[in-house]
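thought: fold this chain, then report.
action: predict
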Amino acid sequence: MKHILNASSSIKTVILSGISLLTAVTVFPDVVSDYAVGRQGDALKHTLRQYCSPESLMDVQSSESQSRALLMELQTDGSDHIVDMVTGNAYRRDEAVVALARCNIVGDSWLGLPVDYRHRAPYDLFNSMLTVGDILACRRSGEGFSEVPGSSGGRWCTGSVTLDGWTMDVVEPADSQKGMIARRYFYFTTIYPFSIWGGDGVKFFTSEEYPGLTSWASSVYLSWHRQYPVTDIEIKANDASERLQGNRNPFVDYPDLAEYLWGSHVGEIYPGNGSVVAPDTPDDVVVRIPLRGRYKLSSDRWLDLYSPYVDEDAKWSIDGMAQTEVRIALDGIGLGKHELQYATPGSMGKLIIYIEP
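observation:
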């Protein structure tokens, strides 16, 4: 048997056909453990975007009732009630049909360039929610989610925030929903790094892919993220999204990712469930970094001959030269395109990598 190990295609799945819900189950790789470990800063965020983006989106021609049916799958609590993502109020399914409407967490008026993101973002399940008409009206007028100065917390409310002389209206979610909203913002700025933002979006997001969130926004959402941990509804929503559009919100599965991108561990290497050794001790590997398609000498030092999809007993070669070590210094391989081949008793294949300055 011979196959090609392709670093750019980690998720292959059966997902939405039109707007119907499919029950077929696909085994998804743990993309965070497989690809994010060993990276930091912009490289970590770029890797999450590459491997955690949706495979399919809601049908743009779908009716309101059809898209509502999809979103109900993401907002159902343990008693089969639909929970408003902003107010926290729960509704029976027949009540939700009347009381709740689809709304984007990051609205169209904020979306600038590139055009591809602008066309896709509104139909991502993680940027969509069911909420009451009052919230929908606020979102349509371009209001974002934030703390309202002077609010007592608990229930949702509206108010205004002034930043650098810029006053904007905002919505403060109910306390029970703040963590979920924060993790949706983390997801959005990771998957859709717009280079141009409109309206109040310029106060929430940056034009650079990293960090993506302004310091003010990251402070607000990290506070919510820390204070209000992942809920059962979020976990169920991740499972539903995996079935429906082929991806998960990594900040639900791995809440500590936010700290490495915007919080207390900024600038540090993401260790996953292990701990990363210092780069000058390559023989004492605690966490192996899975192979990927591109490396940069400016930020990467080592190449681990390891993939979760290749047997441990594989024999490796680089550009036709057999390798006896499992970790190799990148500067010893050299810049440019290189072919890695592996062979086991039952399979063989290759991976093309590029080493850049």
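thought: worth noting. The chain is about 30% helix and 20% strand.
final: tokens above.
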